[in-house]
Specification:
Blueprint lengths: L1 H15 L3 H8 L3 E10 L4 E4 L5 E8 L1 E5 L6 E4 L3 E4 L4 E4 L7 E2 L11 E4 L5 E9 L6 H4 L5 E3 L7 H17 L4 H23 L7 H4 L3 H12 L7 H8 L3 H12 L3 H18 L4 H7 L5 H12 L9
Parallel strand pairs: 1-9, 2-8
Antiparallel strand pairs: 1-10, 2-7, 3-6, 3-10, 4-5, 4-7, 6-11
């Protein structure tokens, strides 16, 4: 009996320590985006297209402007870091300048450093993380298009340290540099998201920022730690010490959808990825908590608008 109780305690402890953010990134096939640099002087403006990925832009020297659709120009100075998701953007010395297309500047393999004009008044570093086709929405829809990292936050030091390492790596072009810059770029994005989540107001909506809520974050960790368990709203509410009605309201307000709706949605996203990896429908159904293949297929069609065996659009 003592052994059983200890095992259960360890199991609960593991659930409490689970990391839904890391779980989602690992499951959805996150791919590092190479680190790049831009040195510029005089008058300049460069535009980049929007892609379904995390992207950071950091100013390591000087100052510039960041221009986004339907957003007031953002003045950036040395030390500023911003996170972008699915949006086009322009970096420029002056918001009034007409930008050139920046994508061809970095098109050649290994061409990670670009210099505009001969000076170096302003230096930028960019990079981030992409996702497997069709899997980005679950993460990016939980974050705003634009996020500025608060340099005064308690955890901003780790972001600054990673940025300095990335700046050095991009500048020296050493052996294995492209691999190192990819990893550092990915680490920087995650560190910056941590800072953003920690600084987000309680009115923020999305499962990522909801992880900072002691009650709702615990519920999310429980679900991700044991996705196949037959969770109910009363059980989740009890686990986090809330009444059923209060829990449902708070979860919906913070995450943007009711508890079991979120659970089903993540099960389907997880199932979709497992199917892409070659698992059978029956095996996936069991893995994500369905007692039959037909029950899983019905839920899959209702959530994603297609059958498990059909190819994603």
């Amino acid at each position: 009996m003592i052994y059983v109780q200890k095992t259960m305690a360890l199991s609960q402890s593991a659930k409490d320590r689970s990391d839904p953010f890391a779980d989602v990134l690992a499951t959805l096939g996150t791919r590092s985006v190479r680190g790049t640099s831009l040195d510029a002087s005089g008058e300049w403006a460069v535009a980049f297209d929007g892609r379904r990925r995390f992207k950071f832009v950091a100013v390591t020297r000087g100052r510039c402007w960041l221009l986004l659709p339907d957003h007031a120009p953002e003045a950036l100075v040395e030390g500023d870091i911003v996170l972008l998701t699915d949006t086009r953007y322009v970096v420029a010395s002056d918001p009034a300048l007409k930008p050139i297309d920046g994508t061809p500047l970095y098109a050649s393999p290994g061409h990670d450093a670009v210099r505009l004009a001969t000076g170096d008044e302003t230096a930028l570093i960019g990079g981030g993380s992409g996702f497997a086709v069709g899997s980005a929405d679950f993460v990016l829809d939980a974050l705003p298009t634009f996020m500025r990292v608060d340099r005064a936050s308690a955890t901003a030091g780790s972001v600054a340290a990673t940025l300095e390492s990335l700046r050095t790596e991009v500048a020296q072009a050493a052996l294995g540099g492209s691999l190192v810059t990819e990893r550092l770029a990915e680490i920087l994005v995650i560190a910056a998201v941590r800072v953003f989540v920690a600084a987000s107001p309680t009115t923020s909506v999305g499962w990522i920022t909801a992880l900072a809520d002691p009650k709702i974050g615990k519920a999310l960790r429980l679900m991700h730690a044991d996705i196949a368990y037959r969770w109910t709203v009363p059980r989740l509410a009890s686990e986090v010490g809330m009444s059923r009605s209060a829990f449902t309201q708070r979860f919906t307000e913070r995450v943007g959808r009711p508890p079991l709706d979120y659970l089903i949605h993540w099960r389907m996203v997880l199932g979709q990825q497992k199917l892409k990896d070659g698992h059978t429908v029956a095996a996936v159904a069991t893995a994500v908590g369905y007692s039959s293949q037909s029950a899983f297929s019905h839920a899959f069609r209702r959530a994603l608008g297609r059958t498990p065996r059909s190819d994603p659009a």
